[in-house]
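ESCALATION

Customer reports they have been waiting on this structure for their group meeting. Please prioritize. Original submission:
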Amino acid sequence: MSRPSLRIPSPGTVFARRWSFEIFHGAGILLIVGTILLPILWIMLTAFKMPRDVYSLASALSFSPTLENLSTVFAHPWNLGNKIVNSLLVASGTVLVALPMATMAAYAFSRFTFPFKRTLFLLVIASQFIPAAAVVLPFFLMFKAWGMLDTRSALVLVNLSIVLPYAVWMIKGFLDAVPLEIEESAMVDGASRTRVIWEIVVPAAWPGIITAAVFSFTLTWNEFLFALILGKQHALTLPIGLIGFRTERGDLWELMAAGGLLITVPMFLLSLMVQKHFVGSLTAGSVR
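Update from on-call: job pushed to the front of the queue and completed.
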């Protein structure tokens, strides 16, 4: 009985297959990158267009840029400057309150053993899946009873319910990668637990803490529903300011794009600055 002969593809066939794979691979990457970057590019271009150029296909890429839109959004009646200040104060205040609380909670879940530990941690994570629309009314009634509607403090408190579970989860994954023997050695030498946490654990987990801070800041910066319901005049944030560009003459796309640029660019620059910390935090939780 004869054995079937092995057919070895010719070098030309191997080259053609590899070339075809590279073409489809490159086309797929270009398609994904284009899908992500095209809306951002379109917003950036629209922010520097005159109103007549926004609705002209001939001016999609060829137009005379102007800075008038960026100056207009800061003038009356739009006043985006005040809303930017509100967004900065609310996002910064949320991060400053959330990080110490999240770090302490993450350390407790990572290092201590107590009843229902796993259940409590799962409840913390599960709270992220509660829709914001389901809790905005109880928050509204509570802050109304306390006289805190349309205040930045109310927005900070309500945003904590969004960012705290995520921050606890991320920081805990990073703390799990810090060897327990380092803390035990320090405490044997006479260091208190507070000193160990401050001088050993926090520096070791600093990339994860920074990444949690950036994500918490981003989530708060882009938050819309709570700011819309709980804010009225004095505590309106930047995303709410974009609604004002829907007027009786239609959507002012050039002004809306300028406002969108003010929202996007700070987050993009902040993400670039902490990119290396973000990569480290993603891989740290898988290493013990």
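Sent to customer with the following note: The chain has a mean pLDDT of 85.
Escalation resolved.
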